[in-house]
Amino acid sequence: MQVGFYRDTWVEVNLDAIEHNVRKMKKHIGEKVKLIAVVKANGYGHGAKQVAESALHAGASMLAVAFIDEAISLRQQGIKAPILVLGAIRAADIEIASKFDLILTCFSIEWLKEASENCESQGIHLHIKVDTGMGRLGVREEHELKEIFEFVDSSPYFQITGIFTHFATADEDEPSYFLTQYERFQQFLSVIDHEQLLVHCANSATGLKFPSKLYNAVRLGISMYGLSPSVEMKDKLPFTLEEAFSLQTKLVHVKKVPKGTKISYGATYETQQDEWIGTLPIGYADGWIRKLKDSEVLIDGKRLSLVGRICMDQCMVRLPYELPVDTKVTLIGEQKGQKISIDEVAKRLDTINYEIPCMISTRVPRTYLKDKQISEQSNPLLTNMPKES
Ligand SMILES: *Cc1c(COP(=O)(O)O)cnc(C)c1O
Predict the structure, then answer these.
(1) Listed residue (142, 146, 136) closest to 105, CA to CA
(2) How many C-beta atoms lie closer than 10 Å to residue 238's C-beta?
(3) pLDDT 10s digits, 361-383
(4) How many domains does the chain have?
(5) What is the pLDDT of residue 131?
(6) Side-chain-side CA neighbours of residue 116 (13 Å)
(7) Where N6-(pyridoxal phosphate)lysine occurs along the chain (predicted)?
(8) Quick check: is 273 in a domain?
């Protein structure tokens, strides 16, 4: 028996879906454009290492994360591929980043000068970030961009290997702001020699919608996980995406209660008749937040409603009839042709699909499927279990 977890709530990640999405995207963007797999935030909640391995296997040539901690964690799990750190890192941490062979984002001349004072290693790879209208991180003027290139030219510590920008509205139907940013990026590129550089501006939305505007790399995040970058784009995707993430639990207690029985904190739900009530071992500490009160789950291919408040570790569901303990319950995913999608949960919470897998906490173990078989289980709570003989 594989020691994975002792609790009947788990995320299932279909790595075949990740590979499918990467392969389809590669085909869509063409031979000459590289694919950078974005695995920040623990691979959008799916598991950074496992997603990275699948993406690389399917043809990604680089990984991207937000912070160096995420990159170091990947290195410590044996990932050797190039890793780009998209976010700002402390200038003081330049040596640790170099030690783990990371590609860093240079977003201002001030950062570059300060970082160079902390350098011992030579030839640290940089991608220069330019701000073309996102207002988040990056160089805003051509003169600063030129200054960065001149500084690096005369510095032994750095080597510029890429330049990039990020779009604020690529996922929206109206293209004018996107085009303004795209033109601004072209202006920046016109003042430097970028012949040898990795030049990238595309997130998932841009990669899907504008395959002729990609320069030579795409940073693929949300759609690698099988999700549409926006509701607007959902019906206009150039190929079918496969959702990789599902969330499962099981009935741990089933009981028949009489009409008028109160359920959960606050006693806000009262049974309207004799009812079968099931208890699920998942709660808001797992990311199944209290706002999901009254949301639906799938049991035996049927949509059933949660009742009463969601507790920290448990919640209750109203059953149509007696069901055995251990019956599988799907909170996100498919059962017998019925589906609760991540988009449905996002809509219920009035947010975007990106947020949903990210909010399922690390207390929930992840199970990985490859060729429909369990290939790996991960549970950060139990990393030091004795080996079974
Ligand atoms: C997160 C991120 C991406 C990925 O965007 P998706 O919309 O998920 O494809 C790309 N580039 C940068 C700079 C990011 O921060």
Answers:
(1) 136
(2) 14
(3) 999 999 999 999 999 999 999 88
(4) 2
(5) 98
(6) 19
(7) 40
(8) yes
What's the pLDDT score for residue 1? 40
Ligand 1: centre distance to CA 90 (Å): 21
Residues 181 and 295 in one domain: no
Whether 98 and 212 map to the same domain: the answer is yes
Domain that holds residue 40: 15-224
- The C-alpha angle with vertex 170 and arms to 42 and 147, in degrees rounded to 5, equals 80
Q: What is the pLDDT of residue 96?
A: 95
**265 flagged as catalytic:** yes
Residue 238 lies in a domain: no
At 326, which CATH number? 2.40.37.10
Token pair 């879906």 is found at 17
Q: Which atom of ligand 1 is nearest to the CA of 204?
A: 9
40 belongs to the catalytic site = yes
| pLDDT the model gives residue 383 | 83
pLDDT recorded at residue 4: 77
Q: Are 137 and 284 in a shared domain?
A: no
Residues 270 and 189 in one domain: no
C-alpha of residue 204 to centroid of ligand 1, in Å: 7
Testing ligand 1's pocket by substitution, the residue of 166, 219, 227, 353 carrying the most ligand atoms inside 8 A of its CB is 219
- Given the residues 40, 49, 209, 370, the one annotated as active site: 40
Q: Are residues 24 and 150 in the same domain?
A: yes
Domain boundary among 340, 358, 374: 340
Ligand 1 contacts CB of residue 166 (under 6 A): yes
Supply φ then ψ for residue 380, to 5 degrees: -60, -20
Answer yes or no: is the C-beta of 206 below 6 A from any ligand 1 atom: no
Residues 250 and 194 in one domain: no
- 39 Cβ closer than 6 Å to some ligand 1 atom: no
What angle is formed at CA 342 by the lines to CA 336 and CA 346, rounded to 5 degrees?
A: 135
Residue 90 in domain: yes
Per-residue pLDDT tens over the stretch 280-329: 999 999 999 999 999 999 999 999 999 999 999 999 999 999 999 999 99
pLDDT of residue 121: 87
Instruction: Kindly give the parts of the chain with pLDDT less than 50.
Output: 1
At residue 385, the pLDDT reads 79
